[in-house]
Amino acid sequence: MSYAIIGLGKIGTAIAQAFAHQGIEVAVAGRRPVDALAAQIGPSLIPLRVEDAVKADIVILAMPFAAHREIARAAESWQGKIVIDATNAFGVPPEELGGLPSTAAIAQVLPGAKVVKAFNHLPAGVLAQEPTTPQGGRRVVFLASDDDAASASVAALVNRLGFAPIELGKLGEGGLLVQARGNTWGQLIFQDVAKFD
């Protein structure tokens, strides 16, 4: 399984650090050069052009929501890929999304992709901390998807990164808890929750 992170802003960098801490190889790309930051984070990060990074089996979208159409055009095909949407569409009017949750709107421009919402509910500073809390629990990463198999694959990755996956169900159901709608945040956004095994 190959991985890529598109965008090395605050959220993308926090996710990349989680990969680096586990020594998992991941391609990183952005609209600006990422070579220096990738080298600073760790040797398991491979800087690539966006057009090459999107060839990975699992692609994590960590760029601003407004860039999703541009990124969609970077791949020859999204068929069969798992795409993790870590973006937030706060401030985007719901009518611009056709009334859909933002992740469902992204899925529409990635034909054939299996899209999972994850890694977007924690502030970057919290996400960049150790996945194990000082109290001994594992920090929760919420997941939502309309594809159960893709959600299970992302849950396995979340576990591998040291976090505890909690599945919320479909994008338009439990997934609404981690989606911004216009100028309103979903109820679970910013909630730093730990799971004790």
Describe the structure.
Keywords: Oxidoreductase. This protein is α/β, with parallel strands linked by helices and 197 residues long. 27% of the residues lie in helices and 19% in strands. Strand 1, helix 1 (10-22) and strand 2 form a beta-alpha-beta unit. The longest helix is centred in the N-terminal third of the chain and has 13 residues, at 10-22. It is globular.
What is the CATH topology classification name?
Rossmann fold
Mean pLDDT: 96
Distance between the termini: 27 Å
Helical percentage: 25-40%
Order of helices and strands: EHEHEHEHEHEHEHEE
Low-confidence stretches: none
Oligomer: single chain
* Strands, total number: 9
Keywords: Oxidoreductase
Domain Pyrroline-5-carboxylate reductase catalytic N-terminal: 3-88
Protein name: Coenzyme F420-dependent NADP oxidoreductase
GO molecular function: oxidoreductase activity
What attributes does this structure have?
Rossmann fold, 7 helices, globular, 27% helix, alpha/beta, STEAP_metalloreductase, nine-stranded mixed beta sheet, 197 residues
Write the layout of secondary structure elements.
Layout: E1 3-6, H1 10-22, E2 26-29, H2 35-41, E3 45-47, H3 50-53, E4 58-61, H4 68-72, E5 82-85, H5 102-108, E6 114-117, H6 124-127, E7 138-145, H7 148-160, E8 164-167, E9 194-195
InterPro entries: NAD(P)-bd_dom_sf, P5C_Rdtase_cat_N, STEAP_metalloreductase
Pfam families: F420_oxidored
Domain Pyrroline-5-carboxylate reductase catalytic N-terminal: 3-88
Please summarize what this structure is:
The protein has seven helices and nine strands; from the N terminus they run E-H-E-H-E-H-E-H-E-H-E-H-E-H-E-E. By secondary structure, it is an alpha/beta fold. InterPro entries: NAD(P)-bd_dom_sf (IPR036291), P5C_Rdtase_cat_N (IPR028939), STEAP_metalloreductase (IPR051267).
